[in-house]
Queue: 3 jobs
Job 1
Amino acid sequence: MPNARRLISVVAVAVLISLLVWAVYQDQFSSGGATQAEKPAVGFRAPDFLGVDVATGQPVKLADLAGKPVLFNFWATWCPPCREEMPALDKLAADFRDKAYVIALGADPGESGELLLGYARENNLGSLTIVRDATGAATRRYGVRAIPTSFFIDAKGVIREVRLGAMNYETMVQGLKKAGL
């Protein structure tokens, strides 16, 4: 009987260790490879990304935007709520040009830079920085499941608010204020 109890204890400890390892693994890797310090959640450092500004052809990285709050909006041209909020994003970019970065990231890798740029020109989005994520890596790293999704990131790169769905101008300003505007 003592051997049976010992065996049960060993099995129970092994199961608990396995569950702990699984929980740590899930927390570490469920956000597309972001580390514990870098995670797409409020209070955590925002995952870095690399995209291309469709107007200039220049690379855009979150790390290069340090020093000002950032509104990072995932969208697509075929998304009605995304299209609805684009004029407000463009106005926000114009109004806070010197105080914050407003980035609209094309979340659909199937949409070319030319398509995104054409959409911006057709809709007079002259102040908004539109970035293409050609591989979908940023969308995966941020765990975006629906668009539009917006991340408000402070000047140190920490996420201060996440919003799902279309926003109006006032909501965007409130988010930037939470990010330190």
Job 2
Amino acid sequence: MNNPFIGLFRSLWLAGLFLLFTYAKGSAAPQSVWLECPPNVTVWCSEDLSDLDRWGKAWVWENYKKVYAPAPKSVKYNTNSCGIGTIERTWEYEDKHWNTHTCTQIITVASGSAGFGVADINWPPSLELEGCNPSADPRLLPKPYDYPTFKKVGCSQPMYSYKDMKFTVADGCMKILRDWKVIDWCTYVPNANPPVGIWTYTQVIKIVAKDTGAYINCLKDTIVAATNDCKGALLNLILSKHFQNVELFRRSQILHLIQYRKDLMHQAYILSVPLNFII
């Protein structure tokens, strides 16, 4: 026997399923959703990488309508100390049904043809040093004679070293051949033939020992009267002192034996004979 209540319950149940299906279908996610990333690119390391959006932004497409995606979830720099390598930007977007969409852009950073070279090096020029034992230590030399300088260091790691060869020309004179080497650690290849990433230069330093501090200190004019007789007077006077700025600042004196004669007109004539000794 058929129960009418069972038939009514079944009808209501089927109607509820229909309504539930219709509601779910109307509120479902758009038929098409995807995340569009900017294309992969290659840039030179000399580029300004502070704003990566210069190479594109991501878009979110929903039912063939696009809007800007949120900022990248992660940015990974896979570059070495010279700035060469890759940069990975990854975006994520979650749709209305909690489905996650991802995409990644790879920016390749290359050194290019505009890398560091000999044209970027300012070598210290040759020079001549004069004085009492002058120092050729680059730490004590003025610019630009001290060390190499570089016009640009982007995408490179320039470093330098030097070695001196000293040659004595004569007493107090010397020539120094200072061999400079500069390498770019980013491109240097040891034992390569021809050399790669290394440059050399010879700076010539001439040293001339001169006593630039030497001077003569002369006394003022002196008048001596021969009071004993009119034939004259024989005197020993120190008329000048000669100072030398050498090592321990030795001092020398020049003594002059002066003979004063006075004639009948009381005019003075000076005959001098220098006597030198070191004290």
Job 3
Amino acid sequence: MTLTITGETTASLIGTPTTEGTYPVTLMVSDGNSSEQQYFEVEVVDSGGVDWHVVGQEGFTDGIASDVNLEINSIGVPYVMSANSNNEISVYTFENDSWSLLGNKITGEQGQAAMALAPDSTPYIITVNCLLKVYKYDGSNWTQVGGTVGNGYHMDITVANDVAPYVSYMDVTNNNFNIIVYPNPNSGHCIVPSNNTGKFQLFDIQGRVISEGILEIVDAKSNNYTYIFNHSNLSQGLYLLSIANEQKREVVKIIIE
């Protein structure tokens, strides 16, 4: 495969394999002073004789998109939900040959979210900021539905025919490490304090393990533990930090800018 530069920060691969499968790609990037390796994968699938094409404009979301959902209503109108590095959640709909923001952005959450459409095409979103919340688009803005749901992650949402939302999530109530990552977003350097010891794993958004180890004890008298996160060679984007022991597990997002 040959890499062809198509812009200041974009490029295209020429000579992609024609056999279906997933192919690892290693890219060496340099600014003239320093260089780093970036790793990603190219997945080749059979289109069945139908070519893929871009719907509307590219890059219509704000910031680095992390959690992304695509839903299509009964008449074929697509809705895209995205969360960015500023912890803003936005929903876009495709109308008149372009993507447009649906209502206001949801702010103040942790940038983890999932979306579902009701039978009447009303979008619902579940998100989390310590506790899970459900939002509904009322035709002009996003409003919270009911109270908080619980404390968890790996959440999902669906809406029944009677327009009642149902949610699922992994409950971590009274069963977490009280992890705080600061600063976050960061450039690859941050501190992760915790109130318990455990093993950690750092994943990229493809689920590959980037780093793993044991939380290091800093102050045994106050039972504090920490991991000094130092991965300045990581590419910009979203990563997941998992900390677990025999009793509990917690996952937090780390955003590299």
